[in-house]
Amino acid sequence: MANFYNDNKDLKFHLHHPLMKKIVSLKEKDFEDAGKYDYAPVDFEDTMDSYEKILEIVGEISGDIIDPNAESVDKEGPQLIKNEVVYARGTQENYEALTKAGLVGLALPRRYDGLNFSVVAYVMSGELVSRADAGFANIWGLQDCAETMHEFASEELKDEFLPRFSEGATAAMVLTEPDAGSDLQAVQLKGKPITATYDKEKDTYYLNGVKRFITNGDADIQLVLARSEDDTADARGLSLFVYDRTDQAVVIRRLENKLGIKGSPTCEMVYTNAPAKLIGDRKMGLIKYVMSLMNSARLGIGAQSTGLGEAAYREALKYAKERVQFGKPIIEFPAVYEMLRTMEVRNKAMRSLLYETARYIDIYKAYNYIAEDRSLTSDERKEAKKYQRLADVFTPLLKLISSEYANSIAYDSIQIHGGAGFMKDFPIERIYRDARITSIYEGTSQLQVVAAIKGVSAGGYLNRIKEFEEEKVNPELEYLRKILQEMTSEYEAMVSFVNERNDNEYLDFHARRLVEMAGNIIIGYLLLQDTMREEEFRVTAELFIKTGRSENIQKADYIKNSELKDLGIFKYPN
Question: Do residues 327 and 421 both lie within one domain?
Fold first, then answer.
């Protein structure tokens, strides 16, 4: 019997963060459901106990069902039969187990048969499932679509669609088109790839066109981004629609044959007069709704990356203890031990960033829902805006760093396995392939930098760093804060150095270096906070901060001594 929640004490540590008292109070609206539903918590302690018990169930299913099924699912994969995607046997078992346990749509309010989970607890369940099988996590994790509908759809649409999730309905974000890729404002779905035409008599929109690279494209409930406005070519002509696939107006043209996450179907789909309903307002599909959805998607990839990193590290640690060379286990060789230690530190680092970001999203979304029932006070509005701004700059930072770390950890895990890791005899071969997509989908690392650089140029990261800097630190940890303060001064100097050029192309050239410098400082402070709560984090904080200082010094040196001409032959002529 394996339980992926109980065997990782860092999860309970992050679940019981001091800010959870505020989050739970906001999320539960002072426990107004206690008299309406017999399973609703009556106070903070009852809520946290509920989170613990449900996460233990997720951990048990992840350890005892999803993880053992992962290898067979990877080999078998889904099949396309008569326009229907048939999941691998293990995938079906996984989804049935989670559905029977009431763990689909668990973040939804109780009125829609959900469990009203906080973002932190929901993301934690995503990390557990991802550690077991990152491909399956894509299928289960797309219940994020339910949250988007809850946030923006009409009451009629919410009543129609949301209760279906607890019954096991699957979901998909249908965004990408063959020629658009990550440039979503280039979406057509109108005559060419994809359009939405309104029939006034039937009060229905009809979708026509092609979508490609759609994860779980066979899903029951689909959120479709389509061009609804004639004579437009940018984001202002796009709207978001919900399509119910029971209508059978979509042909799944093919399933993609992928490097990894092979258990989740990735589809190319043709919409032909597919009836759909508008979510929210016209023209706001990309500008408002998908942008909000992307915050959740980035958070989801952060959880997936963290789960993958944990799985890869544990495989490496296990192998290093068992593999004997030159008369002793290879874990006793400093070169191997250092790799393992770096992997562990990076796991803890991205986990701290993951749950810090989740708390920001929890707070601002909770205020948004409260605002539907009453007017927020001036202080509440300020706080909601503060946390939304933090979420907007932290989600791309999280997605960038966690996905790159997951790839690095998986790479090093194979290295520790040696030639055995290159074979299909060990799980790390699959984990390595699964990790590769995390820095690509839902916006590549390069696009995350484009989103995150706003946190540099507008001062979002620096403002948060200064807040961290003011927080109380135990005297014995002051030496770590001093290092972080030195790193902050250097970061500020580099931001000024780049901005003084007043050249956007030069800023783009160094954007990733500046974002990663900020990330090293922010994570350093988060690990310092963790150490204040739990002494065991001290070694992790020290190693991360010292390594981060070295990395930042190197980045600063390059910034100060480089020019655009260093792009050389890769700089296209005007």
Answer: yes
32 with 128, same domain: the answer is: yes
Could you tell me if 49 and 24 are in contact, meaning their C-beta atoms sit under 8 angstroms apart?
A: no
Q: Is the dihedral of CA 469, 17, 373, 364 positive or negative?
A: positive
Residue 1 binned pLDDT confidence (cut-offs 50, 70, 90): confident
What's the whole-number mean pLDDT along residues 527-537? Answer: 97
Residue whose structure tokens are 């989970």: 117
Q: Which of 359, 352, 449 is nearest to 400 (CA)?
A: 449
Q: Which of 497, 495, 492, 487 is nearest to 553 (CA)?
A: 487
β-bridge mates for residue 206, sequence order: 197, 275
Last residue of a domain, one of 150, 166, 182: 166
Rounded distance between C-alpha atoms, residue 298 and residue 86, angstroms: 28
Three-class secondary structure of residue 385 per DSSP: helix
Residue 75 confidence (pLDDT): 97
Domain CATH number, residue 259: 2.40.110.10
Q: Within a domain: residue 1? A: no
CB contact at 8 A, 270 and 253: yes
pTM for the complete prediction?
A: 0.95
Query: Rounded to whole angstroms, how far apart are CA atoms 138 and 147?
Result: 15
- Mean pLDDT confidence for 67-71: 98
State which residues form the domain around 397. Answer: 287-440
pLDDT level of residue 574 (50, 70, 90 thresholds): low
- Tally of structural domains, the chain: 4
Q: Tell whether the model's pLDDT for residue 129 goes beyond 50.
A: yes
Q: Torsions phi, psi of 282, nearest 5?
A: -60, 155
Q: What is the 3-state secondary structure (H, E, C) of 190-232?
A: CCCCEEEEEECCCCEEEEEEEEEEEECCCCCEEEEEEECCCCC
> Taking all residues of the chain, what is their mean pLDDT, rounded to a whole number?
94
Secondary structure string (H, E, C) spanning 530-553: HHHHCHHHHHHHHHHHHHHHHHHH
Using CA atoms, how far apart are residues 428 and 418, in angstroms rounded to an integer? 11
Q: Give the domain-ending residue among 238, 253, 283.
A: 283
Phi, psi of 170 (to 5 degrees): -95, 160
